[in-house]
Amino acid sequence: MVKFIAGRLALAVLIMLGSAILSFSILTLAPGNAAEAILSAERADDPQLAEVESFMERHGLNNSRLIRLSQWLHMLSKGNFGISLRTGEPVAEEFRARFPATFELAASSMALAIIIALPFGVISAVKQNSILDNVIRFVALWGVSMPNFWLGLLLILCFGVILGWFPTYGSGSIVHLILPTITLGTSMTAILMRLQRASMLEVLNENYIRTARAKGLHEVLVIGKHAFKNTLIPVVTIIGMQFAHLLSGVVIVEQVFAWPGIGHFLVDSINARDYPVIQGFVLIIAFFFVLSNLIVDILYAFLDPRIRYGRTQ
Amino acid sequence: MSLLDIVNLNISFATRAGVVQASDEVSFKIRKGEALCLIGESGCGKSIVALGIMRLLPGNARISGKIFFNGRDLLSLHKKAMRKMRGRDIAMIFEQPAGCLNPVLSVGNQIAEAVKIHENCSGKISRQRAVDLMALVGIPCPCKRYSQYPYEFSGGMAQRVMIAMALASHPSLLIADEPTTSLDVTIQAQIIELLKNLVSQFNTSLLLITHDLGVAAQMCDSVVVMYAGGIIEKGRMSDVFKNPGHPYTQALLKAASGKEPASVKGSVPELTRLPDGCRFHPRCELSQDICRKIMPQMKKGVKCHIQKKT
Amino acid sequence: MLLHITNKKDRLAVLGMIILLLLTFIAILAPYIAPYDPVELNLTQRLLSPSIKHLLGTDSVGRDILSRIIYGTRISLMIAVIVVIIEVFFGVVVGTAAGYFGRAVDEIIMRLADILLAFPGIILALVIAGLLGSSIMNLIIALTSVGWVRYARVVRGSILSIKKEGFIESARAIGCSNLRIASRHILPNIISPVIVLATLNMGTIIISIAGLSFLGLGVQPPTPEWGIMLNEGKPFMESAPHLMIFPGLMIMITVLAFNFLGDGLRDILDMRINDIVEY
Amino acid sequence: MILTRKFAVLFVIICMAFTSGIVAANPLDKDRQVMVMGAQKDFRAAAEGKLLVFDTFVSLDESGNMVPKLASSWKISPDGKEWTLFLRRGVKYHDGTPFNARAAKFTIERAMTSAVWGKYVDAIKIVDSHTLKVVFNTFYYPFLRDMSSGWRAANFVSPSAVDPAWDPKGKIVRYIGTGPFKVVDYKRDRGATLVRNNDYWGKKPKLTKILWKYTPDPYAQILALKAGELDIIGAPEHHSSIPFIKLAELEADPDFVVSTHSYGRFQVLEFNCRRPPFDDVRVRKAFNCIIDRQKMVRSLFGNITEPSYLITDPKFIWGPSNITTGYKYDPVQARNLLTKAGWVDSDGNGILDKDGKDFEVDLLVPTGEANADMVALVVQSQLKSMGIRLNIRTLINAWDKRKTGEYDLFLHHSGCLPSIPGGIGIGGKYHSKGWPYAFHSDKLDTLIESAFTSLDKVQMRARCDEIWTLLHNANPCIPLYDIIKAVVMNKRVQGFKHGPTMFDMDLTEVVMTR
Tell me: the pLDDT tens digits for C200-249? Predict the structure, then answer.
């Protein structure tokens, strides 16, 4: 177990290093420069060339890319992600301030997905080929095919504009959370539902399920305890990996609902060519990916006794 | 009175390839404390009959006939009542025990669960019972092994666990479906010995399903021989072994004794395309016209037109 | 392969196939079937509801929505196909190299793949498209730069399992060249997983194209593209909902068709769901 | 059952994440004077927000004249190098720190760290507690105007609200100014709560509280206004933030009041005058004749705004008030001019050509420019009817191309107060130190420099007349229409007035009715 986690940790560190280098590379291929975009957005007027020059000087944008990269790497080694050109605040602080909103949305979508997908996936598998199963399967396929930005707009139109049940934008309360959560959670729900059904079907054919029934175990326990627990291994893997995906899927949904999270800020920063923010955010998001994969690996070990007790496959 | 009385049990499956008749008018009885052996080549429907008794057949199975257990017809029981009988009255162990244990639950937990299902007892008691059972079936250091997981058990040990689980509520009938087939020969003997002891100790009736005549002879009082879904011969073990009536039984015995290798020519017919008349006739050296046309009736425990029991 | 259509999933696959064929025809024949010029504006015919003259209505500058959707099919399918071809090419080459040569090559390539996979695909695409500026070319670069990794993984996996079966060794033993082994023994074996992955991937790519364009980081207006149309329709959500409903519907149908087909193919080619579950 | 417990913990965490979203929304107290203002920028990022909290030395009137504020009067030495500011007495920052010459010096020093004119300042002398002398090494005409702008306003922060205190380079810790409202709460990307400064030196507003709600998307904003979540939108924006195309719809709605105001800021198409075809004044002139502004504006925006025919609004003190006839739609003259310039359709393909090359130009549209997409499309179709092909390129990095000149036409807006409108300031668009690829000439440079280094108002006006005559004839751009500022509010908001510049709003008389 310890060896297993140590191995995963080493890999995670390696990936992080690679991600940092990749973040650099993104910067080097980017043309253009933040000064004018930021200055002109700030004042709705043409910044004078002298102002642009002084801005660039102040933020070290005149230095060659290589120097900027080495400076960034140096800062990074001290845990400093740099300063946003647009707001003048530390990038890490900008991320920290917005992450809760994004996490809230991602977590509630994940919770929605888990609450809906697991039971329906199980039902679908248990009642294989029934009408209910077919309906669930179709809905799941529809769910993965639905572009979430369109779904978001439809929900706003339907429940925000026409029915007026929910606010159409923004955050701050549970009613604000509902539409974005559905928007972001739908494809996740669909993916999870399909996976849950497939692994349930696989597990239900296993001999130990027959054993459990032969014991006289109630069907609810056969499914809920013996079968379900075995399906959790692949399901948890995907939940973990998809959680990180949710954090990125949030970018578009945050735009649709004007949700004040990291995705929204990232898109604004891209538009303003605020490099420190772009690099920093990409790196931090990659870090979350790696972290969530690591957590999945560890959780995996807890779920599967074969890994838990030392056998690394 | 018999403990188990199976009358004209028919089991068929609807598959894409057609209807599979896995059990055709199967009838036999097991008395209390008796050990009966169901013999046949693989694919002849033995295990299906066993699963039919447990009512654990897959959803596409169709079942008819009567299975009386202690005088009650299992097939007409409510689902709930049937579930209660499983494990408590009728228990079952299977081939390839390793795959029959849930990999993510500890072994002891699975045994304790079997205890708990039918006896309303506390976790502590069921745990203690499970440890006792593990000791009973000869698992060394049961306390330590209790919390281990199935992958840490060898095949033989896993089968012992299965036996412990099956005997948890002292069922009156134990169905053992090829319990030793996948095990090493030395382990096989140990398991057979264990089963034999336990069955006599608890006065449990045994329905042993096997294709191994040696095992059958060691353990059982009576024997039922199945071929292609139907019974072709049944009787007391000693009678049948000494004086087999059906040509198929004869061939099986010869093969088992090793005197005539490959004494049964040809292969088991596909259950979707059974021959007319006696099902064994395409492979039977003695077959005559009547065998091809008319299905023989069971007479004096043998289902054959030609060979009759004397 | 598709002749024995017995179960429901196969039927859905055929339905997907038919829809896709239809869409392909629409894409190819766009200039002949589109009733109007997709970029021609008509300021006197703005925001019209669907009618006989304009079957799906007109948008905020009076362009015919049906015509724009028809041309949009062309753009979306074209970009998606190009992206998939490039991804498959790189994926197969890299994956084969990793699987075939093994050891250090495999180790390096797969760690590289891990790093790329550590990046949330859409965010990387967003950043690349955003920084390079919006154009079809940059969109393709953005999408392919992350997308090939998945193919490389699947190809590598299949090759490793082929290797286990040992007939590569035997082929080598009888003196086959590396190239011959690759083309005769390996390629046929990796084709089905790659086809399934590519089919399912097409749907994802189409959503990504539309999504990036929706954010203004993909295809440029006034190109008729579904994501752009959605974005342009958004302001008129309450007064003229058809502006955003039809393009979205089109994206959904197309993606659904690819998923029907991909799902069916996966069943027919008998692949385990775990191989290709994450979209 | 360790596992079950772990899952329970996980579940609880997820639930907590869920409920963390339940942050009670600010209850709106209907009896008090609370206004909920939708803003497309974060409070701290918006110049408009700063002007509610911070006062500046002067403010401008609509024509560009300076009006006293924290500086009750000022004096400029004859050589223009010495500016003496007489500060208002009895003004206190929200935290009680008195505003005096020392604080004003701090403010100017703070501004110098980023302002262009920072390097022109030789010394800042405190004459007495409320008099300050700023000594320049050159005459920098826009000094006080620049200091009055929203983007410099945060420099008027209380010196004790920066860290370290009184350090001009210090980081602003709290938004503490001298203005009519004080900030009591700020949440990044969510909003801010402002309350009335009851000790304000000027006329106190009637509103007791403003809730600044960050609502980045204009369409979401409109929906929120309709849903009653916001009282007013568009006020804290300088870009034309509410799409014009939606204004007509809102105007027709009896529940809302649409208030528009012109700041003399025009949507323009800037020519790249450094390369063909627009290095030829005849072609530029022809383009100004091809565009039918009237038709464009009426068909796209109805009566929301007016077409513009001059480079900038003549109402400014430096404006083109001497120009009597603007550019106008004249296809016949356009045809003549193009023919003279050599552009004719010689191959009969419907597109003009010259030297075997079709007339094809690129229009660069910066992403996010309001109304730009539709305007570009109309321009495209109007040019097409004259046989000119226009390629629209919407780019995020359009700004980079401004410097490199990779464009033919650039969709842009003219400048507005407090800058010198029309791009004729030193370093402005038409000065050679401004846009590299805009129209420039030595003569124009000389005129601009002499106009804005003169203290004599009459002489300055005379120079401006010359500048406009020259510039107007040079056709440096295609003015399209007036980018008005539009504010939409519900009927509860009474007494709203537009401020003198795009960055201001006058909330003094605003009351919330039932």
Answer: 899 999 999 999 999 888 888 788 999 999 988 888 888 889 999 999 99
CATH code at position A186: 1.10.3720.10
CATH homologous superfamily of D55-172: Dipeptide-binding Protein; Domain 1 (3.90.76.10)
What subunits make at least 3 CB pairs under 8 angstroms with C?
Answer: A, D
Residues in chain C with pLDDT values less than 50:
1-5, 272-279
For chain A, the chains sharing at least 3 beta-carbon pairs closer than 8 angstroms are B, C, D
pLDDT category at B258 given cuts 50, 70, 90 is low
Instruction: Tell me what percent of the residues of chain D surpass a pLDDT of 90.
Output: 54
A-chain residues within 8 Å CB-CB of B83?
A: 216-219
Higher pLDDT, B258 or D195: D195
| Confidence (pLDDT) at B84 | 86
In a domain, C9, yes or no: no
DSSP notation for C213-279: HHTTSSSPTTS--HHHHHHHHGGGTTT-THHHHHHHHHHHHHHHHHHHHHHHHHHHTT--GGGG---
Q: What is the mean pLDDT of chain D?
A: 87
Residue D479 forms beta bridges with which residues? D268
Q: Is residue A303 part of a domain?
A: no
Are the Cβ atoms of B104 and A213 closer than 8 angstroms?
no
Is the pLDDT reported for residue A34 higher than 80?
no
Cβ contacts of A172 on chain D, cutoff 8 Å: 21, 23, 25, 190
Q: Report whether the peptide linkage leading into residue B296 is cis, meaning its omega lies within 30 degrees of zero.
A: no
Decide if C237 and D219 are in contact by the 8 Å CB cutoff. Answer: yes
pLDDT one-digit tens code per residue, D318-357: 989 999 899 999 999 999 999 999 999 988 888 999 988 9
Q: How far is CA C222 from the centre of its chain?
A: 22
Can you give the pTM of this predicted structure?
0.83
- Number of domains within chain C: 1
- Count the residues in chain A: 313
Sequence-separated (6 or more) residues with CB below 8 Å from residue D353: D343, D344, D345, D346, D347, D359
Q: Which residues 282-311 of D are in CB contact (within 8 Å) with C? A: 295, 299-300
Please judge whether C134 and D246 are an interchain contact, meaning their C-beta atoms are less than 8 angstroms apart.
no
Q: Which two tokens stand for residue A248?
A: 């990125």
DSSP at A64: -
Could you confirm whether domain B4-89+171-303 is CATH 3.40.50.300?
yes
Q: What is the pLDDT of residues D35-62, one digit of tens each?
A: 999 998 889 888 889 999 999 999 999 8
Of C40, C133, C234, the CB nearest to D219: C234
Q: Do C118 and A293 touch (CB under 8 A)?
A: yes
Nearest CA in chain A to B96: A207
Nearest residue to C146 via CA among C73, C212, C225, C101: C212
| D12 in contact with A, Cβ within 8 Å | no
Give the residue extent of every domain in chain D: 5-52+179-231+492-512, 55-172, 264-483
Q: D5-52+179-231+492-512: which CATH number, 3.40.190.10, 3.40.50.720, 3.30.200.210, 3.10.20.880?
A: 3.40.190.10
What range defines the domain where residue C223 resides?
A: 58-268
